[in-house]
Structure formats: structure tokens, C-alpha cells
Amino acid sequence: MSILSQLREMTVVVADTGDLNSIAAHTPRDATTNPSLIYKAAQMDEYRELVEESVAFGKQAGDSQESRLEATLDKLFVTFGSRILDIVPGRVSTEVDARLSFDTQASIEKARHLIDLYQQAGIDRERVLIKLASTWEGIRAAEQLEREGIHCNLTLLFSFAQAVACAEAGVTLISPFVGRIYDWYKASRGVDDIPASEDPGVESVTRIYNYYKRHGYKTEVMGASFRKTEQIVGLAGCDLLTISPDLLEALDSQDGDLRRALDPASAASIDSEKLHLDESSFRWLHNQDAMAVEKLGEGIRKFAQDADKLAQFVSKIVTQPVGA
Q1: What is the pTM assigned to this prediction?
Q2: What is the domain range of residue 110?
Q3: Is position 324 within any domain?
């Protein structure tokens, strides 16, 4: 059996892409998207009709160019998400604008709007995860949304403080970023590689997974942002892993015996103090992790930049007169 086939027996495999063809080829249960992935997919000729469908919707959404553009982008995310749900049997993650990462109420309102668009498209809210940055404000938004039955995926997660706060808020799922943690430490140490057995990204997810299982949290852990297959193998058994198409192909072409690395039974016996974080203790604990502080800010800026690129891509079409 391939490594990928064995992985599917112990972990839910999620496709980390907006490319519908890639998703169909690898038959994951779930799929995740973000502005960067949607921007890349929207430029492909084969998805031109999805862009045009969203633009047509946006042109009817308001009198100002700004309101039409915002409506178009929201619809574009939901249109791609809806098409993805025609392929996968599970859930799709759709991201709230990263520029709202420090505004709890605006994040809540945007999430509600995205869910409304999905429901107008005939998609049950149980099949959608709203992605929010793991800032204090984003976590608070997720806490409120979960109470309303809107399930959330907390992304850009780099520190243990973020993971603890997400679990206490009762969010459905978190996405700790393995590869970006690895990138930071590789640059910090001035090395070309870090073995998977010593990989700080793998160690971070392992610690979070064991903490959640040890203390009975229902929040799912989905390792994300991988740079190499060894990182994925090192997290075999994690609740979910979201993997790019190129790494899915690499895992599918590899044979060998895959050992389960993470297991809830083993985690239950680990000595671990349960933490409770208010805002000040969260900010202090997160601030103690220089990598997490840097990568969270960088990640928010990068997603915002890609959202701007996507907006520029569709704005020329949006600003054309209706019927043009």
C-alpha cells in the first residue's frame, strides 16, 4: 500500500487547494481554501465561468464600485467552495478577510454573510468551516459563531497559547502551520534542513494534539502548511492533515510501512497541566514565542496582500457597465 493509502486509515486527508481538478484527482474527504489559493485558481481559464458568475452577482449587489467588488469576492469564495462540495463528501473551509483579523464584530458579520450565501446556494452550514486568524479577536469571534451553529477553522496558528485559547473557546478545528514554523527555525538556525524527528513544526502539532486529547477537548487538530512528506509522516494519526496536491502525489507514489505517530490513547497518559487563559495571559504567553508573533503578523499580511491581488484581478470586470 502507498503511504497515502495507509495515512487515510488513521487520519482524515484534506486537500489544500482551490483547483477543482486536483481535488477530484485525490478524493479527499474535506478541502481548504484561502485567498492565495483562490487567487491562483481564479486565473485559470478553466474556472473563468466561476469568476464571471460571481461578477454577475456582484454587479447587482450595490451602487458603489466598492460594494460591488466586495460582493463579487464573497460570492467568488462561496462559488468555489460550493463547487468543491460537489466533489468532496465532507466540508470546505472558507476564509474571512484577513484585514478583519483584529475586529471581532466585523469578523462575525462577515462569517454570517458567507454562511447566508452558502445557504442560498443550497449548502448546509454543517458542510462549511469559516476560517479566521487565531488572533485574540478572531478566537472571540469564533466563540460567538460556534454558539450560533457556525463552525470555525482557526488558521495561522503558531503558538501553544493560540491552541489553548481556541480549545477553551470551543472552536471546531484548528490549523497549526507546520511548514511556516519549520521555515522560521531553519532561517533562525542558518541551516538548509531540519530532520523530521527534530522539526519544531512537527513538535508543535504533537504537543497540541497530546494536550487536547489529554484534557478531553473536542476541537480537532488539522496539521497544515507542509514542506515535505517527512513532516506529514511524522504526524500520522493526527485528526486531519491538509496537504497540497504535489505532496499528495508524492505520498501516493511512496511505498513502505507507515507508523502511527499520534494516538489518543498514548496522549491520555501524558502529564500535562491544564491552562486557562484570559486576554492578558493569552497575549503574554503568545508574546513569549518570537516565532509565533512574527509568523502570525506575516501570515495576516500575506493573506491580505493576496486578497488585494484577487480584488485587482476581478475589479476590471466588476467595473464594466452592467450588460457589457
Answers
A1: 0.94
A2: 3-318
A3: no
